[in-house]
Amino acid sequence: MTKIILTMKRVFGQKKAVPVAPTPSLHEASSNIDKRVNDMDAKIGKLDAELAQYKQKLKSTKGAAHQQYQRRAMEVLKRKRMLEGQRDTLAGQQFNIESAAFGIETVKDSLNTVGAMKAANVQFKQQMKQLNIDEVEDMTDDLADLMEDMNEVNEILGRSYAMPDVNEADLEAELDMLDDEFDTVEQPAEPSYLSPLPEQPTTAPKQKRPARANGLDEYGLPV
Fold it and tell me: How crowded is the C-beta side of 137, counted as CA atoms within 13 Å?
């Protein structure tokens, strides 16, 4: 059987392998569809302008000419509807491609996040091995004891020496004695500079003119 197959291949020859085109990426596929959609939108715009012209002609014509313009307008409208349907189909394909691309990017981000969390977990475990909870607790207890001892030392250093003991009864007796002393002390005399000044004269004193022997003053007037 194998010899027969080999003989047939030598006689009829083998089919040449058809080269397979590389599969486009999602980004390339989306770009190609977007270009085709834009081309269709431009064609639909031209058909809309043509329909507008036929609309004006239908308003101003009658009879056979009116029917002819109406048939042309119907053909243009059919092409427009066909292009709109094709454009909607391509838009739906583009939406699916973009959704698939978004899903792939989301999966990549999730994988990166999981990888980063795994690395952080390993690093965290390694660093936690360097910490001993019992040692940390002992250290904080030692610090608390040292702070307490330091406060006690400061209190001792701040004590006052050779201070007599005073109780509440002594304080009340001392205050009573102070009240008695204030009552018996005479008030000091008022300083002289605080006494009222004498009243100032309001009229000028009368001056006597010197009298001469003849009973007249220096101006020749009787005194």
Answer: 3
The beta strands (E) that lie in the chain are given as none
Cα 107 from Cα 206, distance rounded (Å): 125
Local structure of 162: helix, strand or coil: coil
State the pTM of this model. 0.46
What does the alpha-carbon distance between residue 72 and residue 65 come to, in Å, rounded to a whole number? Answer: 11
Average pLDDT score over residue span 175-190: 65
Residue 222: helix, strand or coil by DSSP?
Answer: strand
The whole-angstrom distance between residue 97's C-alpha and the CA centroid of its chain comes to: 36
The span from the CA of 148 to the CA of 156, in Å, is 13
22-80: per-residue pLDDT in tens? 787 888 888 999 999 999 999 999 999 999 998 888 888 888 888 998 999 999 999 99
In contact, 23 and 70? CB cutoff 8 Å: no
Sequence-separated (6 or more) residues with CB below 8 Å from residue 210: 217, 218
Helix, strand and coil percent figures for the chain, each rounded to 5: 70, 0, 30
Q: Name the burial class of residue 97, with classes exposed (0-12), middle (13-18) and buried (19+) by CB atoms within 10 angstroms of its CB.
A: buried
DSSP state of 57: H
Q: What is the pLDDT of residues 131-170, one digit of tens each?
A: 888 888 999 999 999 999 999 898 888 776 666 666 778 7
In this predicted model, which residue has the larger pLDDT, 204 or 153? 153
